[in-house]
Each structure stands twice: as C-alpha cells, then as structure tokens.
Specification:
The protein is mostly beta strands. The protein has one helix at about 30-35, and strands spanning about 1-5, 10-15, 20-25, 35-40, 45-50, 55, 65-70, 75-80, 85-90, 105-110, 115. A hairpin with a 5-residue loop joins β7 and β8 (about 75-80).
C-alpha cells in the first residue's frame, strides 16, 4: 500500500500499487501546481478527506483539480464523470515515501502547445 497527503494531512490518498509511469505536464495549471500525475481510477484510490477540498474546473470541464482547503496542497484530480472506473489522478509529489518515486518512469507531456509527449 502506498499513500500520500496534503501538507497538513487533512486530505490523504492511498493505492495498492503505484503506476509504472507518471506524467509531468507543462500546461498552464500543471506547471503552476508542480504536479506529477499518477493515473488510476476512482474505484482504485482510497480518499480520506477531513477538511473540504477546493475543486477547480477549467478548460473543457472534464476534470476537477482538488486541493486541501486548509493548506492549499493539490493532492489529486478527478474526472467529472461519477463512474467508478472514471479517471482519478494522484499528485505523486505528495507521496509519503519519496523513495517510491525512483521506480516510476516519468514521461513529459507538452500540454501547453503540441499535446504530445516530448520524450
């Protein structure tokens, strides 16, 4: 089991297995958030939310970026589709065990211009 949390610990996530790959995107929001996304599904991620999350929906309106209302850390984003198999991405930069990142291949995605992987 792997887990991560916001800075104050009010929003926590856990997964049985980490993804083999993570995405570093340079779009206008991901660049500002400094996020490293690990993709899963809503059903595969266990969320514990003790303080409300701030949801930010932008662009095509298909995902909500979720940040702790107490400390401001962006922990994950969720698809606006409520289905259990809908995408949920966790911010791997919030992992409790930073050493776990060494086993994950990071792909770089140009979300700012070309919408292609640059590696």
């Amino acid at each position: 089991m792997y887990g991560g949390r916001c800075h104050c610990g009010s929003v926590r996530w856990s997964v049985d297995d980490l993804p083999e790959r993570a995405i570093a995107c340079n779009c206008s929001i991901c660049r500002r958030l400094g996020a490293l996304w690990g993709f899963s599904t809503r059903a595969a991620v266990q969320l514990t939310v003790e303080s409300p999350v701030i949801r930010y929906r932008w662009g095509d309106g298909l995902i909500d970026f979720c940040s702790c209302s107490r400390c401001g850390t962006t922990t994950h984003y969720e698809s606006t589709d409520p289905a259990p198999d809908a995408r949920l991405a966790v911010n791997l930069n919030t992992l409790d065990d930073r050493n776990a990142l060494t086993a994950i291949q990071v792909r770089h995605f140009d979300g700012a211009e070309s919408w292609t992987f640059t590696d």
